[in-house]
Every structure is written in structure tokens, then in C-alpha cells.
Amino acid sequence: MGRPKKEIVPATAEDIRAEKMRQYEALVRKETELLQKMKEYRDNNLIEFFDKPPNPGPNPRQAEILEAWLEPYYKTFTFCGGNRLGKTTLDVIMALSTMFGKYIWSNKSLLHLFNHNKARKVRYIGQDWEKHIKSVVMPELEKWWPKSRPVKQKKNNVGIDSLWIDEKTGSTLEIMSNGQESELHEGWSGDLIVYDEPPKRDIRIANARGLVDRLGRELFCMTLLKEAWVDREVIKATLPDGKPDPRVFNVHGESYDNIGYGITREGLEIFASKLTDEERDARLKGIPSYMSGLVYGLFSRKNHLVERFQVPLDWMIDIGIDVHPREKQAILFIATDPRNERYVVEEIWDHGDAKWIAESVLRAIRYSDYRVNRIVIDPLAKGDSNNPQSVYETIASILLNKGYVLEVATKDKAQGILEVKKHLMGPNKKPSIFFFNDLVRTIFEIEGYMWDEETQKCVDKDDHMLENLYRILLLNTKWVEADDYASNDNRFEEFSENRDQMTGY
């Protein structure tokens, strides 16, 4: 006899529901475990998700640096501004990205920035070992170093992991202090030096020597409370001929730029309520006390300097002349374009008498074929009644002989300064005046023009081109269409008979 058949009991509805519930719970557990692992990976490798939600990504000012960093031409970067702007975060992100050879969150390569195929070497300069490096820098490094990436660390004599070695690339990160003797910073070579807050000048020089062989870079992230030399020699660096160094990329931000990127408005306002007006300027806006007295603090190389180009023939040119008996003469040329934006296009800064001034103006007009609108001169050029042949009369006579009328400029400096400021930054937060970047004297003056703390007046020093600047802007020139571009051509036949064909002089 065969075995009896096993009776199959049909599943009840309750059994079916219970099985489905078990399957659902198993799926939920599996998904929860997966999400937990993903969260753990994300938390341990934050830099891979730097620009991905829910992370807010770089704030707008940090993003400017990250974009410019991809251009090999730039060698010095400055990121200045108020407290809590995200400066240390950017320092760490750029240090690690240089070591890894890429923006790890986007996989965008940085290898084109280096002139070698060796492991990268980065040096990170903090302010002091205990208060800054141990309590601020090290936690930020630990936070952003990806835990999935093996790293060797070596402690220094104060117990801090001051040497990090990326086992994947062999790249190194060496941490040093601004409080160390400058001699300890000598003898190093590498690809990047990061300064978290302003260094002392001798520290910067000692480290900069190490960038020569590898054409390395500097990154200054700082709130400029002290160390005024950084503003003069780094942010406003110039080439040997006095022109602004175009290899320097500057970004300035305020603490408020970082709201929503790690800080809240409420928290920042609580901090602001504890500060004096001067402290707010320094700690929130990033304006150090030694710069708070700048007359034209709105001027920035990034926003206002442009490469020289050939001025269109129909742009209207106003010319300002500031004369001096012993100093160099200052002559400034400002163009107005069809949108009524201003361009400071030429300067003359040299010694000469009244005849020389007039002829210099005429040569410049002829050489560039300027469409002249108005020419104004310092009111003091008229002299007094006891001077029968004033500087004004000499210049006016020569210019009139070529068809140009010389006018006396306004003395309203206060209104003129307001007019300049309005052009530097209008109601739409955009400039309406630009400067050719090879105008060495004009840039020098506008970057250093200060208020006198005692008199509350402008310091009467190094302001000759600026006198011309405000006088011309007060003319309020409005562009009109030119009737004849060649209207100047016949005025200079006699004057230009001996003019050099190459130089125009």
C-alpha cells in the first residue's frame, strides 16, 4: 500500500495577511539597514557629498574660489571677510582636494594645475597650537577627511597629528603654526600653502620660497583684524612695473553670505548684538580697522578693473588736469559709452610746465583719436591777479588754437566724492565706472585714499588723479551720437608735423 496523501489545508485569509506582513517587515528592515549604512558612509565621507542635498554645498563666496581654482593662471587666492564665513572649511576642502588631485565630490580633476607627476605636498599654517590648531583646525580636518580613505598620521612634540599622509596618492599635509620661528618654516618645497588667518610677514616669505620649484599656490582665508601688510602686499599685490598682479584672485564676503550654509540668521544676529559698530564692521563685514578709513572702500580690482581695449571712436572723452608747481602733473581721461557708463582710459603723470601739459593732452587726443567732450582744470591754475600769465591761460591758449576750450573745474569735493561712490556701486549693486588695469597711479591713489580721523576730511596726499576723477564725474556727461568721427582730423596738421609715426609723439 502506498503512503497516504498529505492533506493540504488551504491558507486562511489571516495566514495570508500574516505572511505579507512578515515579508513587508523584512523588506523594511533591509531598507532601514541599507539607509543606515548609507547614512554612516555619508557621515564618514562628507567631502564626497559636499555639494549634494541635504548638504547646502559651498556658499556663493566659496564657490567663486572653487571655480577660479581650476584656472592654472592664478597663483594666489584670498578669501577675506567676517567671522563664520566658512573660511576654515574652505581651507580644509582645498588642502584635501590638492592632496587627492581632484574635487572628490564631482570627480573633477585638478592634475592639470601641477607641473609634475609627483605626490602633492601641502602645508597648512594655523595661528597657534592650542587655541586655534587643536580646537579649530584639527576637528575640521577630521570632519572632512573621508574615512574610506586610508591615512597615516604622525604627532609632533605637542601631541598634535601634524603630518597626514594620504596612502592612496602619497600626498602629504604638514600642519605648522604662525607662532613658530620663521626659520622652522624654511627648507620646504611643495604645491600649496594654506594660511588660516593672517600670517606674519616673515612666515609668509619663509614658506613662499618653497613654492618656487613646483610653481605652487597660496590660499589666504582670513578675517583681517591685524597684519595690514597682507592687504598691501597680497590682496593689492603689484607687478614690478606697478600694475596690479593679475595672478591674484581675491574674494571678499560678509558673515551673512554663509546664512543657510552652516549658520542661521538668528544665531548671527545674537552674535552681532554683542558687538560695537567698529567690531561689526570687522567681524561681520570683514572690514579691518585700518581700512575703515578708506574713502573709496567700495573700489575693488575684481569689480572695477578691466583689460585695456581700443576706445571706440564715438565714445565721449572728458579730460581733467590737476596742476602743481613742484610735483608731477596729473592728467586723467575718462570715456562715456552709449550706456553712459564711464571708463577711466588714460593717465599722464609726469613733470612738466604749462606748455608741456597742453601738448601732452593734444598728443594723447591725436594718438588715440579721442572724441573730446570737455576739458577741465584745477581752479588754482588761474592763479591770482598779480600773475599776468597764469598756468590756466597758457594751457587754454594752446588748446584753443587746436579748437578745444579749457574750463575751470568745480571745487565741490564733498559732492564729488559722493558722485564717485555712486558710480563705484549703484543702487543695483553694480558699478557704472571701470578703470583700465594699467593705470598705475590712479589705482594706487584710489586704493589708499583715506579720511583723517581728527579733521574728518580727506587726507591731502596722493589724491591728484582722484581730484580729476570727481571733477569729471560731476560734469555728468551724457553720451550723444557723434556727427562726424573725423572732426578732429584737421586740427593737428601743424602740431603733428614732427610727430613720430610709431609712437604718436
Jot down its keywords:
505 residues; elongated; Rossmann fold; eight-stranded mixed sheet; 2 domains
Explain what you see.
The protein is of the alpha/beta class. The chain folds into 2 domains: 233 residues, P-loop containing nucleotide triphosphate hydrolases (Rossmann fold, 3-Layer(aba) Sandwich); 188 residues, Nucleotidyltransferase, domain 5 (2-Layer Sandwich). The protein is 32% helix and 18% strand. It has 14 helices and 17 strands. The strands form 3 sheets. Strands 5-6-7-4-8-9-1-10 form an 8-stranded mixed sheet. Strands 11-17-14-13-12-15-16 form a 7-stranded mixed sheet, sandwiched between helices. Helix 5 links the parallel strand 8 and strand 9. Helix 3 packs across helix 4, helix 10 packs parallel to helix 11 and helix 12 packs across helix 14. The longest helix has 32 residues.
> How much β-strand is present in the residues?
15-25%
CATH fold type of the largest domain: Rossmann fold
Number of domains: 2
Percentage of helical residues?
Answer: 25-40%
How many distinct beta strands? 17
CATH architecture of the largest domain: 3-Layer(aba) Sandwich
What is the average per-residue confidence, as pLDDT, rounded to a whole number? 89
The count of helical stretches stands at 14
Distance between the termini: 128 Å
In terms of topology, how is this protein built?
Blueprint lengths: L12 H32 L15 H9 L7 E6 L5 H14 L1 E2 L4 E2 L11 E6 L2 H16 L6 E5 L5 E6 L5 E6 L14 E5 L4 H8 L8 E6 L5 H8 L12 E6 L11 H8 L4 H7 L17 H4 E2 L9 E7 L6 E8 L5 E9 L3 H15 L2 E7 L13 H11 L4 E3 L4 H12 L8 E4 L3 H9 L15 H10 L32
Parallel strand pairs: 1-9, 1-10, 4-7, 4-8, 8-9, 11-17, 12-15, 14-17, 15-16
Antiparallel strand pairs: 2-3, 5-6, 6-7, 12-13, 13-14
